[in-house]
Amino acid sequence: MAIKQYNQPNKPLHGEYSIIHSRNSKSSLKRNDVPVNNPTSMAFLESISRYYGYLNYSEENNTNINMNQCFAVRLASFLIEAISNKKFMLDPQGYFRKNFYHYILEKASASELAGEIGDSELLIIYIKQCLRMLKASGILRQVKACADINQAAVSSKSIYSKLFNAFWNDVPWEDIFPSDTESARELKVSKNILKDLIIRHHGFLTLQSVANEFFDMTGFCDQNDLLKISFIDFYFFTWLKHFGMIRYFNGEDHAPVRIAVTDKGRIFLNSI
Known about the structure:
Layout: H1 39-57, H2 71-85, H3 98-108, H4 112-117, H5 120-137, E1 140-143, E2 146-149, H6 159-170, H7 173-176, H8 181-189, H9 191-199, E3 205-206, H10 207-218, H11 226-242, E4 246-249, E5 258-261, H12 263-270
Antiparallel strand pairs: 1-2, 3-5, 4-5
C-alpha cells in the first residue's frame, strides 16, 4: 500500500519567500536508512496521516475539472490578492516574515481554502511551495524591502500556464521537495518518464504499481520502497492533483491508493 510522507520544516511559520528551507542531510533516503524512532521519520508519519485527512476533504471523484479553478490557481490567486492589498516587509534574506504567514492563515480561515485542506500546517506547506512558483514565474517579486506583485504578469487566464511552467521547468525541485534533496533532483530529471507512465493508462491505477514501474525503468530505488513511494506521492502526484491533472480515489481502509489522469489533465500532459 502506498503511503504519503512529508518532511515538515522545523518551524512551520518560518519567514521564507517561498522555499521550504531544509537543513537536512542531502543523502538519499534508502530503505532502512531512517530508523522509525528517528524524529524525521516520526514527522513523515505524522504528515502522512494529516495528508490522508486532507484527501477526505478533497473532491477526489470530480472528473469535470475546470483547470483555471483548480486548487493551484485558487491558492495562487488568493496569495496574489493578499500581497497586492497589503504591504509585507521581507527580511534581509528576502524571505517573508512570520507575521505574513499568521495573516495568511487568518485570512484563509474565512475562505474555502482552509476548509478544503483541513490542516493549517499542510496549508502553510502548500503556500510556501506556491510562493516559490509565483516568484519563478515573475508574478511575485521584491521591490526594495517589500513583496510586490507584478500586475503586468497577472491575468486569470495565464496564471495556470505560468504557475505550471514554473513548477515543471523553472523551480529547482529540491527547493520545494526538501525532505530528500538528492531524490528531488533525480525526479525532476526523469519526470517525463513518470508522466508518460501515467498518461498511457486509462482509468484508475494503483500508485504503488506505477511507482514500481518508474523505479524499474530509472533505477530510482528498489521496488516497494515506501519512503520513496511516499516522496513521489506527496510531492509529485500531490501537485499534479493541485493542478487538476490527476485525481485520487481512496477505497476501504488498507486498500491500495489509486489515481487516475483527468481528461483535461491528459490533454495538457500530452502537450508538454
